[in-house]
From TrEMBL:
Protein name: Ubiquitin-like-conjugating enzyme ATG10
Recorded family membership: Belongs to the ATG10 family.
Molecular function (Gene Ontology), one example: Atg12 conjugating enzyme activity
Organism of provenance: Sparassis crispa
GO CC term, one of those recorded: cytosol
Highest taxon of source: Eukaryota
Keyword annotations from UniProtKB, A to Z: Autophagy, Protein transport, Transferase, Transport, Ubl conjugation pathway
Keyword Transport: yes
GO biological process: autophagosome assembly; autophagy of mitochondrion; protein modification by small protein conjugation; protein transport
Pfam families: Autophagy_act_C
InterPro entries membership: Atg3/Atg10 (IPR007135)
Length: 226
């Protein structure tokens, strides 16, 4: 059985994830830290098979939660599904960093990919040097990397770890983590936990949960407060 995700499997996984983590009131704070909530599903305005997950998160200019620390439950109060204009208005009035986060499908690697934008309180995009110091990243999550103004790379890696490119559905500039090693990382976990009695939806949901867990070693999905 292939452990990659086709386009249709990605859609099923995302919708199952949103249904579970956005609407299940029985989930505790530990689950919320491991599996971030607040996501919505967006379809392309005119083309099929270009849907994606998105959410807006706000960081204080002086972070109250440092990357790598255990955030308290209040950290999730800054997560919402407002649109870009509303998010920008909020940053201008409260003096916070605004980030839009996206989970999209990579047709090349057949896995999810994490895209994001981040702006200051005046609506200006942050430089890469500033981005890597925000609470979006866990403390010491990018050791021994080589960076310039448009990418962060691990030594001797063929692909940059973090770089800039157009959002595959919106066509707007964004930062993204290159998904070249995603499959091997997720597959290693899935081979250990996969159960024969799982339905297709349960297997795909677990795949996306594992992806969040793996990426969560670098990205602090729990950071963000108003």
């Amino acid at each position: 059985m292939s452990l990659s995700l086709t386009r249709s499997e990605f859609d099923i996984a995302c919708k199952a994830y949103i249904s579970k983590y956005n609407f299940d009131s029985s989930l505790g704070a530990t689950d919320a830290r491991r599996y971030p909530n607040g996501w919505t599903w967006k379809e392309h305005a005119s083309l099929p098979n270009f849907g994606y997950m998105c959410r807006a998160v706000f960081f204080p200019l002086t972070p109250t939660v440092q990357s790598g620390d255990e955030p308290d439950e209040d950290v999730y109060h800054g997560i919402s599904d407002v649109d870009d204009n509303a998010a920008l208005t909020q940053t201008q009035s409260t003096g916070v960093l605004s980030t839009r986060q996206y989970v999209v499908h990579s047709p090349t690697f057949q896995v999810p990919a994490f895209y994001f934008t981040i702006h200051d309180s005046a609506g200006s995009p942050l430089t890469l040097a500033d981005i890597v110091t925000t609470p979006l990243f866990r403390r010491h999550a990018l050791p021994e990397t080589v960076s310039n103004s448009f990418a962060v790379s691990a030594p001797e890696s063929l692909f940059p770890m973090l770089s800039q490119g157009d959002h595959p559905t919106l066509g707007t500039p964004a930062w993204y983590f290159h998904p070249c090693h995603t499959l091997e990382s997720v597959a290693e976990v899935m081979m250990e936990v996969q159960q024969d009695e799982w339905t297709t939806e349960q297997r795909l949901l677990r795949w996306l949960e594992t992806w969040f867990m793996v990426l969560g070693n670098i990205v602090d999905f729990g950071a963000g407060s108003l």
